[in-house]
Amino acid sequence: MGRKKKKLSKPWCWYCNREFEDEKILIQHQKAKHFKCHICHKKLYTGPGLSIHCMQVHKETIDKVPNSLPNRSNVDIEIYGMEGIPAADLREHERQKQGSRPTTNDSGSDDDEPATKRPKPEGLLGNAPGVMQGMPPGMVPGMMPPPGMAPGMQMGHMMQMAQMGSHFMHHPGMHMMPPHMQAMMQGQGGPPKPLFPSAIPTSSPGGPGAPIVGADFKPISSAATISAPPTTNTPGGSGGDGKSNTIATSSATSKIIHPAEDVSLEELRARHPRYSRNVPSKVDEAAASSSQAASELAIAVSAAQQAAAHHQQKQVDAMNQHHAAMMQQRFPIRVTAGPPLMTMSAPMMAPMRQMMPPTLIGGPLMRPPQLSMPPGMLGMPPGMVYGAPMFPTGPVLMQPRFR
Amino acid sequence: MKSQTEYKLKSAPEDAISAVKFGPNTNQFLLVSSWDGYVRLYDVTANNLRHKYSHDAAVLDCCFTDAVHSYSGGLDTALKSFDFNTTKESTVGTHGNAIKCVEYCSEVNGIITGSWDHHVKLWDPRTPMCSGSYNQGERVYTMSVCGEKLVVGTAGRKILVWDVRNMSYTVQKRESNLKYQTRAIRCFPNKQGYVLSSIEGRVAVEYLDTNPEVQKKKYAFKCHRIKEDGLEKIYPVNAISFHPLHNTFATGGSDGYVNIWDGFNKKRLCQFHQYHTSVTSLSFNHNGSVLAIACSYSLEEDNLPNPMPEDIIYIRSVTDQETKPKYSS
């Protein structure tokens, strides 16, 4: 019987070296003895947790874990049960156990059942198949610890080790890292498991078969969007009436501090006359790489913009003419180069469309412009000033200040 | 709050600050674009203004390409470059509408601009011309580059992921997981994913890998909200900046707060004091020891405050304790 059996040690508390029959009791002990807030007696889960709690709730700093041994009082090490104990300390503990109880070890040479005896951090490391990538779960418990490895090391570490190969031993610094950090370092390998079961992701039950990346702009997984009740009108279908989307900014208990119109704060600011003063009616000359239609479009739009500049004191008649002209310009190319065209023309058309009945807009072929964007944000022609009558739907944000 | 950890930059812009960006290898130089039509270069250590150059209209974004060259764009639709050594400025090209985002991509040594004209354009700094124009389908609101990946956030809550080495097709098209307008997107320095913020006090952490196992890790959380008399005020999250080393990030909101988060461990690392008005832009320096915080009122509310809050840039020293994930001690 030359084989030296290493009896697995009981779970023990890193903070006070006390041993326990089972890790659940150990965790209870730690919460009661070491992770309890001395001010409000709330039981936290880890030393850092306690430290953060005291910092945030009571504005007090904790520099020592309560009731801990002098050299084990570090509040920055995240320890939960047997999880997170620095490997060096695990080894040291084991060595001391060996020394103090030399006789117990050789007795039961056949009680080699590491799977059951080993402290198993249930629910901490998770038994999700994803963690065990490429390694049959059954292998782990039966595996003998490689030479030099502390026998007390738990499954979690072993798994990590298996994944990381022999490099593990050559990087002493790594021992300090909790398993989820290691998982992170392996790129996308196993998902880093949160230390607390409660901190599971809030989303995406997306099964393996779920379609992922679509060109349809659906969320990346089957999970629903994360947030409060729906607020914006359906995007895309919105532009048809010439109004921009609005955000339901107020509810009974909350208020979103944002203008009701669903455009960016920068666009709202840019509408202000103060900022439109110097906007040149430049044509996009760099459209070389775009389609030819686009450059044609640019010229057309530029012409329209210049024209618009002349008529800035907009009479409805004049605008109608414009509008018709623009429609004719845009119609032939619209099919080939929809979005850029709309970009340019939409802002000018939007206010007008609100001023006249739809029948005036054009012939049967000329569909109302599809405004997928709110009016007034883009390509504001020089000198054109948005005021309340032109833009009845908007919040007319700047007005109070300049009246 | 006056302290040695934080100070105001002198000769601040005279209108709202649109962007602050630290130089690539220094914590000395900070590039600032403003609605007053100027791009300014500050020496942060000496606390003075080194250079400024102007656009024809408000400047919405700027970036360094190296220590002495900057690019900027704004409402005048022109992309300008400036050489701080020779103080030579030039107009590189234009968009069809205001340029909202200007980013430098070292991977392809190119400038990337995003505009309200629905397009993203690539520019080669050596031959100052546009080397590609790509339709995003909507107005570009925010943009971030990490490595070869370009993540574009547009109006209508769309997210487009591109590979800058091959812009012939869109790698991914997504809809934002947040229900409200996208405000900012920044990529994790480790290239695994990105952080997205909305106008509704919420931040999402998303992963680029489409593997369902990886996608399970994504999540979103509420922040930048203030409860007052039973009414919860929810503020836009305007700014995100990643710590270059720790993969943690700072968010700045219209509530005037800056929070630092550990996205992988779902923890808030710290919160600074409340600033006097909205935080519009944030930038960590190259080693993450300093955070520039731009504060400008951004017209979130229909009733303008009187007097209008000052436009101020704070330079704040941050420690590892504030920015480093707590577990790896």
From TrEMBL, chain A:
InterPro entries assigned to the protein according to its UniProt record, in alphabetical order: Znf_BED, Znf_C2H2_type
Keyword Zinc-finger: yes
Region annotation Disordered: where it falls in the sequence: 89-138, 223-247
Presence of the UniProt keyword Nucleus in the record: yes
Domain BED-type: 6-65
Any one GO MF annotation of this record: DNA binding
Low complexity compositional bias, start-end: 129-138
Localisation per UniProt entry: Nucleus
Highest taxon in the source lineage: Eukaryota
GO cellular component: nucleus
Keywords associated with the record: Metal-binding, Nucleus, Zinc, Zinc-finger
Alphabetical list of PANTHER family matching this protein: BUB3-INTERACTING AND GLEBS MOTIF-CONTAINING PROTEIN ZNF207, ZINC FINGER PROTEIN 207
Name of this protein: BED-type domain-containing protein
Species for this entry: Phaedon cochleariae (Mustard beetle)
UniProtKB/TrEMBL annotation, chain B:
Keywords carried by this UniProt record: Cell cycle, Cell division, Centromere, Chromosome, Chromosome partition, Kinetochore, Meiosis, Mitosis, Nucleus, Repeat, WD repeat
Pfam families tied to this protein: WD40
Renumbered ranges of WD repeats: 92-124, 237-262
UniProt-listed Gene3D superfamilies: YVTN repeat-like/Quinoprotein amine dehydrogenase (2.130.10.10)
Broad class of where this protein is predominantly found: nucleus
SUPFAM superfamilies named among the record's database cross-references: WD40 repeat-like
Subcellular location: Chromosome, Centromere, Kinetochore; Nucleus
GO biological process, one term: chromosome segregation
One GO cellular component term: nucleus
SMART domains: WD40
Family indicated by similarity: Belongs to the WD repeat BUB3 family.
Name of the featured protein: Mitotic checkpoint protein BUB3
Lineage: Eukaryota, Metazoa, Ecdysozoa, Arthropoda, Hexapoda
